[in-house]
Amino acid sequence: MSIWELILAFVVVVLMLVALLANVLVLLCFLYSADIRKQVPGLFILNLTFCNLLMAVSSMPLTLAGIIYKSQPGGDPICQAVGFLETFLTTNSMLSMAALSIDRWIAVVFPLSYHSKMRYRDAALILSYTWLHSVSFPIVAASLSWVGFHHLYASCTLYNKRPEDRTQFMIFTGVFHALSFLLSLIILCFTYLKVLKVARFHCKRIDVITMQTLVLLVDIHPSVRERCLEEQKRRRQRATKKISTFIGTFILCFAPYVITRLVELSSVVHISSHWGIISKCLAYSKAVSDPFVYSLLRHQYKKTWKDIINKILKRSSINSSALTSESHNPNISQLNE
């Protein structure tokens, strides 16, 4: 193995471990907190978490084996099953992010009618559509034998081995990425930009009230005035940062891989195998960033996973103190015997 292959293999291992730990923690928070389970967006986050976990235990290990052995890991049935699952999970993840953005758009733009427009039944219908949409493409690809081991990405994924099917495969690939990546990106941009517009409008209203208050309070201390102005500035930047993170991570992680898949269809441009694996790793990195972007860095999830950790540490400290007291008290030890 070359130094590049060692680095790429190490990156895949790190991505796999972090994705497993982070998404398991999100799942534990969902199971532990009744408040999180009551929220409608929790269904979309749960679906996204399961997609990321399955990606970490199915596709990533085979990519690691493909990098190390430079050949197809396992037999054709295993590779085709993993390629089918990888196509389904990637599409499902993208559409789940789009569903989360629609939920935020309704909550912010139509706050009074949110509970009537976005109920559990509505969320379940949206999830049903994402599953049907996501499973349709791998079914078509598998029926036409367009799933297999692709050496450029060292992965089991969409791959056409027959030259006579080149035109049909090009059309299928273009439609697939248009109705998965591009569709999700359009929904993300439309909904989050609407949310940003409303957030900025509310910020302006708060800023006007703040400035009027500061003008009226003539005797206010300069330090208090400065803190108010700093909070005003942070408030304006907060929504922009969050929305930039949602859209930016989506583009940064998926766009290089999607563009590479489309450029690959042209026989004119040569693509390095190292770049192919790097673009695949960037797509895998979305399974790592999603738990932090959508869940673990939010206040409610922070409080929940901190409560879980404190509960585990408290229980372990109680057990250790009980063992220590038993070792120092011979009477207790004799009774236990």
UniProtKB/TrEMBL annotation:
Domain G-protein coupled receptors family 1 profile: 22-294
Short name of any one Pfam family annotated for the protein: 7tm_1
GO MF entries: G protein-coupled receptor activity
Function description: Orphan receptor. Displays a significant level of constitutive activity. Its effect is mediated by G(s)-alpha protein that stimulate adenylate cyclase, resulting in an elevation of intracellular cAMP.
Membrane topology: Multi-pass membrane protein
Protein known as: G-protein coupled receptor 26
CDD domains xref list: 7tmA_GPR26_GPR78-like
Any Gene Ontology biological process: adenylate cyclase-activating G protein-coupled receptor signaling pathway
Record has Transmembrane as a keyword: yes
Subcellular location: Cell membrane
GO cellular component labels: plasma membrane
Lineage: Eukaryota, Metazoa, Chordata, Craniata, Vertebrata
Keywords assigned by UniProt, alphabetized: Cell membrane, Disulfide bond, G-protein coupled receptor, Membrane, Receptor, Transducer, Transmembrane, Transmembrane helix
Species name: Manacus vitellinus (golden-collared manakin)
UniProt-listed InterPro entries: GPC_Orphan_Receptors, GPCR_Rhodpsn, GPCR_Rhodpsn_7TM, GPR26/78-like
Transmembrane intervals: 6-32, 44-68, 94-114, 126-149, 169-195, 243-263
Highest taxon listed in the record's lineage: Eukaryota
Keyword Repeat: no
